[in-house]
Amino acid sequence: MSLPSPSVITFFMVGCQRCGTTWTAAALRDHPEVYQPVKKQSYFFDRYYDKGIDWYLNFFKDVEPQHKAVGEIATGYCLPGSVPLMAKHFPDVKLMMVMRNPIDRAYSNYQTRKVEEGWSSFEDAIEEDAEFLERGQYIDQVEALLEHYDRDNILFLLYDDLNKDDRAYLTKILDFIGVDSERESKLFGQRKNAAIFPRLRKWLHLIGLDSFVHMIRKSVIGDWLRRNRKNKGSAYQPMNPETKKKLIEHFLPYNDRLASLLERDLSHWNSE
Length: 272
Fold this sequence. Notes:
Elements: E1 11-15, H1 21-29, E2 34-35, H2 53-57, E3 69-73, H3 83-89, E4 94-99, H4 102-117, H5 122-128, H6 131-134, H7 138-146, E5 154-158, H8 159-164, H9 166-177, H10 198-206, H11 210-217, H12 220-232, H13 241-262
């Protein structure tokens, strides 16, 4: 089977981590007019660019004529180092970027990685990994995108809006990528940042069984797992107040610049 042309790819959701992209990926994957690779992220532009564009296009070899929107959700493609590479090969795609209170985003990311990384505290994680802060300095990433793409081709989204009205949030995305936006989704009302069986999924990925993960995700078992995680709610312990105060001070100028560009009130991101 020959590789598809780069022109087959029409959209990327380029960020951000822990901002509901897993929920969005599942909702889009359930839409008959949307194609995504079985694997949620290929990490091509942020990790594996040396493998070459043909390696990347192979992820899209199963695109069919009914797929009006074809793309990938990859939370590292908003990083300044990835954007020029993406623009080189796909200068005309539509981009989506969703952002969340950067402190909440960082704390959520810490919770999902602390066992694997062996961190004893959130403070240790921030000290050891600069990306906890850099990933939440969204305006730097937004400005990098705007150096290479027209503003009209980028849909900036807020995780706040997803939590407030997931139906309106998904409708905005579907309209933007050009597919039927009136279709119902079984994801409505489910937790927006709940990864499905994350440890099992990671293990299955390591042994090459991504297709099995995809099968479970779309089955009644996947529905039950999502409902179960939703009912359990968040088990995070409260953040150290002094740490939160320092993070508010750090992110304040970045949030203010972002609020100005988006013409949105983000003052609640700066409150204790």
